[in-house]
Specification:
Elements lengths: L23 H14 L12 H8 L3 H13 L3 E4 L3 E4 L10 E8 L7 H14 L3 E6 L4 H14 L1 E6 L8 H8 L5 E4 L10 E4 L1 H14 L5 E5 L4 H16 L9 E3 L8 H14 L6 E4 L2 H13 L9 E6 L6 H5 L1 E5 L1 H16 L10 E4 L1 E4 L8
């Protein structure tokens, strides 16, 4: 077998010095990509040795090795022990990667998303990346359009809070086929190979139930927007804690607004909450699946003359970043969404630099805390 000759890129006595604010291995990688894109290195060409490249670029062998490791992960080059490193990708397939991270969320407001966006942007800026915030309005077709646009722009990485409707595998493949790292936040579609950062859903419901039970409440209720895998987890934890205390949760004390009539849904939601609070056996404690729902219950209770927390205690769920006077007062089970956003960027960086595979199954479970606020009292 005749091996390809090593490509002589330049006279190593005249160094191509790398300098600037970016990490040296990233500059070394970019320089090699430029050589391939310019046709100086073609598919099948053997690269100079690590030592020769280090001398040429004016850096250490470890820097070159890290650059080649990333290019190997991205299938730009292949490395064979005892033979060398060879170019794999044709120049026309080597598009310039946009120095941008994308964040796909169902909406940009709500109890969680402002905190997530804040953390994601902060961490992206520290890694010298710009950010594209894309919202889907919980529409699967919009999510597909956004993913196609980010794929076309060849962004450097994407974090996704997927729609409630199951995400088809081809949406993820559209990104990963272009070697774009993908991290799922909050929930991850089944049967996909990508990392996930979220929290223990059942523990949220359990924590809310336990604090209400500890305060002496026995008639409890659960209010949410939609029933899907996350809120179903809250419900299982909530009911589990009640059952352990010898209590139950009748159907009329479980309210999901999305299951009401579609017409005038907002008015229907307010009326449904008011109807629950008018019952002779009305709940004395309510767990709302997010802060927005907690605010809805708070205002309906006030309209009926109920005093909080003397007549009704409320516990919500949120991302820790309070954006209003009422959300600051609400007792809340919290997850640090700002830190979750930062961790999403860190995980994208790990995949992008080859420290974690593109199809990693890593799961990061964020800790939960309880902020007792001013809406929690004895019945």
């Amino acid at each position: 077998m005749v091996l390809p000759k090593r490509k002589k890129l330049a006279d190593t006595s005249q160094q191509v010095l790398i300098s600037g604010s970016r990490l040296k291995y990233q500059q070394a990688k970019d320089w090699l990509l430029q050589q391939i894109a310019a046709g100086e290195l073609k598919p099948g060409d053997a690269l100079p040795s690590e030592r020769a490249l280090a001398k040429l670029l004016g850096c250490g062998v470890h820097t070159v090795r890290q650059a080649l490791s990333e290019l190997t992960t991205a299938h730009v080059v292949s490395r064979t022990r005892g033979k060398g490193t060879f170019v794999e990708v044709p120049p026309q397939n080597l598009r310039k990667r946009l120095n941008v991270y994308g964040l796909i969320v169902p909406e940009v407001c709500g109890s969680l998303y402002p905190s997530l966006i804040k953390g994601f942007v902060e961490a992206s800026v520290r890694t010298h990346h710009q950010v594209l915030i894309c919202h889907t309005g919980l529409d699967l077709r919009s999510q597909s359009d956004v993913i196609l646009q980010l794929t076309d722009k060849n962004v450097a990485g994407v974090a996704i809070v997927p729609t409630i409707e199951p995400m088809p595998a081809y949406q993820l493949k559209a990104l990963q086929s272009q070697q774009i790292p993908v991290v799922f936040c909050h929930r991850r579609p089944p049967d996909v190979a990508a990392p996930w950062i979220g929290w223990d859903w059942e523990k949220v419901g359990r924590m809310a139930a336990e604090i209400l039970i500890q305060r002496g409440h026995r008639r409890l209720a659960l209010v949410g927007t939609s029933r899907y895998e996350v809120t179903e987890g809250y419900e299982r934890g909530f009911i589990g804690a009640l059952n352990e205390a010898g209590l139950d949760l009748p159907d009329h004390r479980i309210l999901y607004h999305a299951e009401l009539a579609r017409s005038a849904a907002e008015d229907e939601a307010h009326r449904a909450v008011a109807k629950m609070l008018r019952r002779p056996d009305r709940p004395t404690g309510i767990f709302a699946s997010d802060v927005i729902e907690g605010e809805r219950v708070f205002f309906e209770a006030m309209k009926l003359g109920l005093r909080i927390p003397r007549d009704l205690s409320l516990v919500g769920f949120g991302g820790g970043l309070c954006l209003g006077a009422l959300s600051e007062r609400l007792a809340t089970v919290t997850v640090d969404e700002v830190e979750l956003g930062r961790r999403a960027v860190a995980l994208i960086e790990e995949i992008r630099t080859g420290r974690e595979p593109l199809t990693s199954q890593q799961r990061i479970v964020m800790p939960l805390k309880l902020s007792e606020g001013e809406t929690l009292g004895a019945p």
